[in-house]
Write a structure and sequence with these properties.
The structure is a homodimer of 277-residue chains.
Chain A (H helix, E strand, L loop, with lengths): L2 H11 L3 E5 L16 H13 L5 E5 H5 L2 H14 L5 E8 L3 H12 L1 H4 L5 E4 L5 H8 L5 E7 L5 H4 L10 H9 L8 E5 L6 H8 L5 E3 L9 H8 L6 E5 L1 H4 L7 H22 L4
Parallel strand pairs in A: 1-2, 1-8, 2-3, 3-4, 4-5, 5-6, 6-7, 7-8
Helix pairs in contact in A: 2-4, 2-13, 5-7
Catalytic activity (chains A, B): orotidine 5'-phosphate + H(+) = UMP + CO2
GO molecular function (chains A, B): orotidine-5'-phosphate decarboxylase activity
Pathway (chains A, B): Pyrimidine metabolism; UMP biosynthesis via de novo pathway; UMP from orotate: step 2/2
C-alpha cells in the first residue's frame, strides 16, 4: 500500500486506528477452542467486526511464534485475511546483517516465498543501515523503525545523549531519514509521552508514526494528536487488548466493534479539530 | 545448558566452534530436494558430520521464516536434532515490550508451548531492560545480547559516544551486566575488529562472547583469540557459510566436516597457547 492510498483511507474512514492482533490463545473465548484454528477464527471475527472503523491491522508475531508451527499457521492465515484496503503490519521487530534481513523481508513481503504479503514490518535499528535497507527494496512496502518505544526500559538506551546533546532516538530518526523518504519509512513512537512528539516532529515532520501505548499502556489520544498530527494525519494509533479483549464472552466481536467505534469517534473529533479533510 | 557444562565441552572437544545453520534451500545440493524436508535433511547431515568438533549450533531464524510454514517446520525439526551436549542458539535477534518478549521466550525456550527448546536466544538491546529480562526467567537458558555487530552498519549507532566518551555498545554491556551475571548473559561481538575485544573485555571480562564474522565476513581467528580469550575460554566463534557450503555436491557433509576440523585444529592451537586445560 502506498502513502496516497493510506491517506485516502484515513479520510474516508475518519479514522487512523490500527487494531493490534496480539492474540493469546489462553485469552480468547473458550467456545472457539473447538475450531481447527481458534486464533485465526478469533482474528477473523475481530477483522469482520472492525475493518470499516480502522485503517490498519498489526500482528504481533511473538504471540504466534510462542505456539510453534500451529501459531505460524495462524499467523499466515490471519495475514492473508487482512483486507487489501487496510495496511497490514507485521510487528516483528526484526533486523540483522544484510543477507539475513533480506530473508526476513522475504518472510513478510514475498508471498511466493513465505505465503505472507504484509505491507510493512517493524524493524529494530541497532544494527544500522544494512540491516534496514533490504526491507526497503520491496516496492510499496514500508519499514516501521523503532524510535522511541512506550515501555519503561526505553529510557535505558534510547535517551542516551551524544556529545551534541542529541538522544539516541533522535540520531536514529535523523540517520534513517537519509535511507528512505516518508513514503517508505514510518517510526514507532510510544504514546506514553505526549510532549516527546514535539521532538519527534522536529526530525520527522512528514513521516507516519505508529503509536502503541494508548489504552492499556496509559497514553492519551488527545496528547498524541495535539503534538503528533501533521497535514497528512501522519499517525497510526494502535489499540490491542482494549479492543480484542473488550469482552471475554461470545459477544467479543460485538464489544470489540463498540470499542473500535469509540476510538474512531474520538479520532474523528481530533481530525475535525485539525480541519483534516 | 549451564556455564560449567559449556566449559567442560570446550575442554573435552578442544573447540569453541559454533556451526551456523543459515540454511538456504536454494543453496543446498539438489539431490536433497526430493526429501520431504530438504532443509532439515541437510542440517541433520551437517550436524551428524560435525557435532564432535563443535560445542554449539546457531540457527538463523530468518532463513527458515523466509519459507513460511514449511520453513518453521524445518526450524522446529532442526532445533530438536541439536545434540544435548551442544549449546543450541536461536539467532533470532528478538526483543519487545515485556509481555511480548515473554512470548518470544516461550517460542524458543518452552517446548510445551512451541515444540522448541533452545539453550539461548540472541536479543536486540534497543528497547532496554524489560525487553530482555523475560528471557532471563528461564532456568539454565541464556540471553545473547547484541553489543558490537560485524556488519558495516554497526557504526551507525553502536559507536555513538555519550557525554562521557562511552560508546553505545559499551553502555549496553555495562547496563546489561546489572541485569544478569556471566552465567546467563553472553554478548554478540563481531570478529571484524580484533582490537575492539580489548574494550569489550574491559566491560565484560567474564562473559562468553558469540563471535560471528570469522570467515565469510573477513575476521581473523588469531586476533579474536589474542584479545578475546579469558580463563574460561569465553568465546564461541561462529562459522556458517564456510562450513555448510564447503561443497555444493553430494560430498557436502564430508567437506563440512573437513572445514569444521580445520577450524577446530586452529582453535586447539589457540587454546594451547593460552594454556587452557
Amino acid at each position: 500500500m502506498n502513502r496516497n492510498t493510506l491517506i485516502e483511507q484515513i479520510k474516508t474512514k475518519r479514522s487512523f486506528l490500527c487494531v493490534g492482533l496480539d492474540t493469546d490463545i489462553n485469552k480468547i473465548p473458550r467456545f472457539l477452542l473447538e475450531k481447527s484454528d481458534p486464533v485465526f477464527e478469533f482474528n477473523k471475527m475481530i477483522i469482520d467486526a472492525t475493518h470499516d472503523l480502522c485503517v490498519s491491522y498489526k500482528i504481533n508475531t511473538a504471540f504466534y511464534e510462542s505456539r510453534g508451527i500451529a501459531g505460524w499457521q495462524s499467523l499466515v492465515a490471519t495475514s492473508n485475511y487482512i483486507p487489501k484496503e487496510c495496511l497490514g503490519i507485521a510487528d516483528a521487530k526484526r533486523g540483522d546483517i544484510g543477507n539475513t534481513s533480506e530473508m526476513y523481508a522475504r518472510a513478510f513481503f514475498d508471498p511466493e516465498a513465505s505465503g505472507m504479503n504484509f505491507d510493512s514490518v517493524t524493524v529494530a535499528p541497532y544494527m544500522g543501515s544494512d540491516s534496514v535497507k533490504p526491507f526497503l527494496r520491496f516496492r510499496d512496502k514500508w519499514v516501521i523503525l523503532l524510535a522511541l518505544t512506550s515501555n519503561e526500559g526505553s529510557a535505558d538506551f534510547q535517551n542516551i545523549k551524544n556529545g551534541q546533546n542529541e538522544s539516541l532516538f533522535e540520531s536514529v530518526i535523523r540517520t534513517a531519514n537519509t535511507w528512505a523518504d516518508a513514503d517508505r519509512l514510518m517510526y514507532v513512537v510510544g504514546a506514553t509521552r505526549g510532549e516527546a512528539f514535539l521532538t519527534i516532529r522536529k526530525h520527522a515532520p512528514d513521516n507516519f508514526l505508529l503509536v502503541p501505548g494508548v489504552g492499556a499502556q496509559g497514553g492519551s489520544l488527545q496528547d498524541v494528536c495535539r503534538y503528533g498530527l501533521n497535514r497528512d494525519c501522519g499517525l497510526l494509533v494502535n489499540s490491542s487488548r482494549a479492543i480484542i479483549y473488550a469482552s471475554g464472552g461470545e459477544d467479543f466481536a460485538v464489544k470489540a466493534r463498540e470499542e473500535a467505534m469509540r476510538l474512531q469517534k474520538e479520532m474523528e473529533v481530533e481530525l475535525n479539530k485539525f480541519n483534516f479533510y
